[in-house]
Write a structure and sequence with these properties.
- The complex is a heterodimer of chains A (about 280) and B (about 325).
- Chain A has about 280 residues and is mostly helical.
- Helix content of chain A is about 75%, strand content about 0%.
- Chain B folds into two domains: about 55 residues, no CATH class; about 230 residues, Orthogonal Bundle (MetI-like fold), CATH 1.10.3720.
- A two-stranded antiparallel ribbon of chain B has the order 1-2.
- In chain B, helix 2 packs across helix 14, helix 4 packs parallel to helix 8 and helix 9 packs antiparallel against helix 10.
- The radius of gyration of chain B is 26 Å and the shape is globular.
- Classes of the chains: A mainly alpha (about 280), B mainly alpha (about 325).
- Chain B: Keywords: Cell membrane, Membrane, Transmembrane, Transmembrane helix, Transport.
- Chain B: InterPro entries: ABC_transporter_permease, MetI-like, MetI-like_sf.
- Chain B: It is found in: Cell membrane.
- Chain B: It is a multi-pass membrane protein.
Amino acid sequence: MRTERGLGENVRTALVYAVLIVIAVAMLIPFLWMLGTAFKSSSQVNAIPIIWLPWPLHFGNIVSAWTSVPFGRFFVNTFVVAIASTIGQIITSVLAGYAFARMRFRGKQVLFLLTLATLMIPFQVILIPTFLIIKHLGLVNTLWALILPNLATGFGVFLLRQFFLQIPTEMEEAATIDGAGRWRIMAQIMVPLARPAVATLSVFTFLWAWNSYLWPLIVLNSPTKMTIQVGLSYFQGAHVGEYNVIMAGSFLSLIPIVILFLITQRQLVAGIVAGAVKG
Amino acid sequence: MVTTQPLVMSGRSRQREGPRANRSQRGAYVLLLPAMVLFAVFTFIPIVWTIVLSFENYNIFADQATAAGFHNYSALLHSPIFYQSLLSTAYYTFGSVPVTVALALFLAVLLNRPGLWGSNIFQTIFFLPYILSSVGASLVWKWMFDTNFGIINAFLGFFGISPVPWLTSPSTAMPALIIMTVWGGVGFAVVLFQAGLRAVPTELTEAASIDGATGGQRFWRITFPLLAPTTLFVLVISIINAAQVFTTVQVMTAGGPLNATNVLVYYVYQVAFQGTFNLSYGAAIAIVLFIIILILTAVMMIGSRRFVYYEGETRDAN
């Protein structure tokens, strides 16, 4: 009886592994196909039957991707936007989150509801007037156009508020008795304690800045100002049909985010569970 | 601790009745100022402005607007492309979301198997496409769906299926986009389901298994009902995200062929920022999109009250 059940369990475990492995391989095929293509010569790309693994590897595509458009510039611009947005969001979210979690003031409920309301309004819906605001500020085709609307989000404020609410009040009380003011309590006790929430927020803001496409597509038009996704799109427009070169460009655009992902997977998962929505 | 907390609180509020109270209040407004100003300028003014624009005829080159009443909305109702884009958005959303959610639930249950080695590695692999699904991944899929040299038709060729003109035929373009979207979205839902499954108390399934319940019975009678809040949340988020798709469409099909994949957000982009720069008409489409999203969210929330069991809730006898 026991061995029979054990055997059944083993078969079932093997089945689970088989299914998981098949699906995992299927999920990875696009990346393998991209890598394979990126290292093919132009004659190998459209060869029939399909060449699955090119040999020798052809590095010319990476070089021509990097040199045909200012890819380096795209990376720098994206990093500038991502870092500036991340710093901005940390500041605005810590300050507002702390006020909502720990202070009493008139209009608190209304302001908090307004903060939650921002989560209900998708960016795609308010895209047009946001463009007009940026245009009236004279910021079209600048990186400020990408940074400014992303300096504060309802998600960030909400995330930090929830985190501050979980921190026991005893520590602040002790600090108050010791004569510390609000600002000192916030800077020296609350912010260090909120590090996990700040990490989650940073990773998400960075990821958003890296992957965002619609907004930069609308406000940027010169290649020297482009961020990576618009740059990649512009690049593929210059190489229509040359899939080996296009895949090399796609590969370049994915490297930084794969590295970020492998380092910060835990924060990403935590953020999604906390209710993050992809921008 | 539970008993001392209210005491401490009341002690503090008594202290606040003096001049300190005002100071701490003003402090709160200072802390809130940056976020609130940014919300006002980049969320609340734009949403009101979107509504205003949709009732105007705005010329971006002259920066002049004239009142237009319901003209933009009536133009929408007479536009075949608008109906096509409503249909495309619905097709895309209801084509991709159920498959994504069902596959994610299935994978999360498999990963939740006790003692499964390497579940972290699988989670990483399933999650990776979600992180990478922007222009780069869309270009990869565009190449995979290539009629003559793409890997998908090569694979189908093994089974003797002749090449499918995926992205160049109106009937297959949307299924292609949906396949790509399931690939990109499943990892996100897996993560949420895994968190939900961890919260299901194991005592219940163990007790049921002692009583002789089969694996299937344990899942459908215990785990699945307890997971309902997570499932609902995943559904709401996925539907809202799908209704706003843009990048994949713009890169892979540019709304074509013959508007077969012209979804609402792409249509907004097309009328407002390409060619005619008809921002007011675009604003009217955006408002329609907003109303659809609000209705979907409300329906889901009302549905959750009626059909979803939350822990700690006492159930009325049916």
